[in-house]
Amino acid sequence: MSDASNKADLTGIQITVVPVTAFQQNCSIVWNKNTRKAVVVDPGGDVDHILAALKELDVTVEHILITHGHIDHIGGAAELAETLNVKVIGPHEDDRPLIDRVEDQAKQFGLDAVKKVEPDQWLVEGDVVTAAGAEFQVLHCPGHAPGHVVFYNKDLKLAISGDVLFAGSIGRTDLPGGDHDTLIASIKEKLLPLGDDITFLPGHGPASSLGHERLNNPYLK
């Protein structure tokens, strides 16, 4: 995932995926094998599993990044942030209503009670966040959730896309704040123009490329 023009910054970037909770949500650890710095994206729960992975990788977490406010992506954020003494960054503030109702989300899905997280920084379109020495552009991609954001690095040819787009599918729009037409617009106007060679890591399931989904995803026809 490195770019020859930026080897000094990006050659060490690695991604370790830790599936968490009954939803098998992809909690992603973006880390640098040279500096041992890391960020955690979407710690949805099973914090003990995430901490074990961090220990095994022998990395220091700089902060936590959140794509959107559904419980399977934020359920462990408060606990992890407190344990590691790091800040929580994201999502867009349009997801505040979802985050404020995280306890209700837990009850709705029959999950154990979780602690509500208060993001230290909300994100907007065009912001840049750092992850293990790499800079990721923030794309506001509503539809699955009003404040959903995607993290994109051009040189790595990588997007961490949360629940906007999946291999062979798209995000649900039947949850509070969801809207199908808005989601399709986010995919076609924000993600697909990034290029067919961009790999995206979704919030659930395997990674894919934007080109493959543009040609084969039945929801994008």
TrEMBL record:
- The organism's superkingdom is given as Bacteria
Q: Which residues form the Metallo-beta-lactamase domain?
A: 24-204
What does the record give as cofactor?
Answer: Zn(2+)
The record, for Gene3D superfamilies, names: Ribonuclease Z/Hydroxyacylglutathione hydrolase-like
Report keywords, A-Z. Answer: Hydrolase, Metal-binding, Zinc
Under the heading PANTHER family, the entry gives: HYDROXYACYLGLUTATHIONE HYDROLASE GLOC
User: Protein name, please?
Assistant: Glyoxylase, beta-lactamase superfamily II
